[in-house]
Write a structure and sequence with these properties.
single chain, alpha/beta, Rossmann fold, 6-stranded parallel beta sheet, 12 strands
Length: 352
């Protein structure tokens, strides 16, 4: 029987991109190993340790006390933890799952807002730390959710090991959901500088008669700073069923992002989306068919795209139906099956 280990910097839940992805990745590994796995999540690391990535890695590595045949990692850095797995079993196979974004673009967006990226993420910018933080060089296979993500990191690290794209998934409702009659915009996700929410807020300041609702675990702390009358800010939510009635069009203006699960989730509920070229998920969107793809960091084009849906409400419905049908091609059950095929090929040393 295959023994498995799943390690993530997120938790396992249905709320939030990283948590949802980790939930289904761990499900895929558990199915492959017939439940014979151990799971280490963010919950095993205390809050006072979480800001320090290398202490995080050390804490996780100390939890390893037995041999595993297959270890899957989501998050950074886990260089030491991988080393411990390989020390206990030199034949252990390693898979890393990484929604890599463009580091240079991310740094630029932080600096635009006066945020010291180097202080927040020293492991990503220090030459002596970066190689340690990017465990992809140690993996038997590296999984990305988009070609955008794969092309960036494989080139940056000059990776020669096995790399492939397995997109994230969704759970499309069996019945086509209703859409609010009055176009209202929504954003689901974190509010980090590289998510482009600042451009979205600039756009909303120039749009009259439109509403924007922001949802996500990390949004509550931003309420005090977002005082626009046409913007509502909410924190965590229990399910998509709770929040979708307030959204008719999803807007995701990422400066850089490996995928964008919120965008796919909006499409699964029959909502067309506006998404920037800075998000990996943009490569899955057919511009003008199930959504609109816009340049990154361009407020004027973002405004024009949002106005289009305000002025053409029929397009909300027509594109929404195409979005709903497309989402059926990216179901979590199918994604988990693809991971199972990958795990089998890695253990057998065969091409996926």
């Amino acid at each position: 029987m295959v023994t498995g280990l799943y390690v993530t910097t997120s938790n396992l839940s249905t709320e939030g991109g990283g948590d949802v992805v980790s939930l289904h990745e761990s499900n895929a590994l558990s199915k492959f190993c017939d439940g014979n796995i151990d799971i280490f999540t963010a919950s095993v690391v205390t809050d006072d340790v979480k800001p320090y990535p290398f202490i995080w890695d050390f804490t996780m590595s100390m939890k390893i006390n037995k041999k595993y045949d297959l270890a899957v990692f989501n998050g950074h850095p886990f260089h030491r933890t991988i080393g411990t797995v390989k020390y206990l079993n030199p034949d252990a196979k390693i898979v890393t799952c990484v929604p890599a974004h463009n580091l240079e673009h991310s740094i630029e967006e932080h600096h635009k807002l006066g945020i010291n990226y180097e202080q927040l993420y020293p492991h990503m910018v220090g030459a002596q730390f970066y190689e340690y933080a990017t465990q992809e060089t140690l993996a038997d296979a590296v999984v990305y959710p988009s070609k955008y993500s794969m092309d960036y990191l494989s080139k940056k690290l000059s990776l020669k090991n096995r790399q492939l794209v397995i997109p994230h998934g969704c759970l499309t409702p069996s019945e086509y959901p209703s859409i609010p009659s009055i176009p209202s915009f929504g954003y689901i996700g974190a509010l980090g500088p590289d998510k482009g929410v600042n451009y979205l807020l600039q756009a909303m300041s120039k749009l009259r008669g439109s509403k924007l609702t922001l949802y996500g675990k990390q949004t509550e702390s931003a309420r005090a700073s977002i005082v626009a009358k046409n913007v509502s800010v909410y924190g965590g939510y229990g399910s998509l069923d709770e929040i979708m009635p307030k959204i008719s069009v999803g807007v995701f203006p990422s400066a850089t992002e490996g995928f964008n699960l919120g965008a796919l989730e909006c499409m699964s509920y029959g909502r067309p989306i506006i998404i920037s070229e800075g998000a990996g998920f943009a490569e899955y969107v057919t511009d003008g068919v199930n959504g609109l793809v816009v340049p990154r960091c361009n407020v004027d084009v973002l405004i024009d795209s949002m106005k289009y849906f305000v002025d053409n409400p029929d397009s909300v419905a027509s594109m929404g139906k195409k979005a709903y049908e497309f989402s059926k091609l990216l179901q979590w059950s199918d994604v988990e099956s693809e991971y199972g095929k990958l795990f089998k090929s890695v253990l057998e040393g065969k091409k996926y």
